[in-house]
Structure prediction request, 314 residues.
Amino acid sequence: MQDSRTSAMFNRLATATLSFALASAALTGAASAAPIDDGGDGTSSTTDRSAAGETLFGGTVFERPGESYGEAFQRLSKAYGGSLDIVRMFHSGLPRPWSTITSDIGDTPLVVSFNADPGAIVAGRHDQMLSQWFADAPRTRPTYWSYFHEPENDGVSHSQYRAAWRHISSLEDRADNPQLNATLIMMCWTLEKNSGRDWRDYYAGDDVVDVLGFDCYNGGHRKGRYRDPIDMMEDVTALSESLGKPFGIAELGSVVVGADGGTRGRAEWLTEYARVIRENGGLFGTYFDSDVGTDYRLNDDASQAAWRAVIQGT
Prediction:
């Protein structure tokens, strides 16, 4: 890892550690008072908030039929008060050129994932394209990039996956851009005892991974409740602290739960979850505002208003 990146990540880690220490007492006292079942400055720019170590909140962007990605981004931005702190972007293959990405989302910070066969990565077949992509990446705002997010269910060879990560990281290092952050994105479920998984299978090393990213969904809906965000985040914050790595929530979601349509309950859950992310020093939190697989969209007024307030810092 380049010295400039090491310095930048040290500053982020210091901020996250201080935030965690200051918030621990407040979080303990808040657990029983939270309206969830058991089990910033809005005028500052996103760049300023990121530099100050504040949590960036945003969401995923999915196109409706006949809609371009840029149009979908504008629609979502308008729904949440005119802007997003950060965008979660997915690529099923290699990433699109930065000229296209910037045309779609402007100067908004990004959590972006891409995919390619690990064997092809290690063999260097995509070196030229990825090297150029890293060289073209913005230097004025953070980019949290991830290779092959959520690899746990895809039957990938653990050793080959880690080798691919290490290879891509070496390409990124040559760009010498401290705004590029290698972000390993796993499922929150992977950290739970009943998962039967080991996060170490996917962790390429302290010198490769800059940030831990997690996809966390409310499994409590199966029992008609919203699971307590403090409980959901316990393993995430513990691993982050043990490795000395900052974390972010790359996907957050819940279906509507409750006899009242769930609008009030989900709105309260979103507000509480954002508080827990922020007070534990999370770098970002992006809501999975999509009906891909399951309908997590924030279509009700209460949930939309709650997430809008989170993004605006009100």
Remarks:
- The chain is about 40% helix and 15% strand.
- The radius of gyration is 19 Å.
- The longest strand covers residues 180-187.
- The domain at 3-312 is CATH 3.20.20.80 (TIM Barrel).
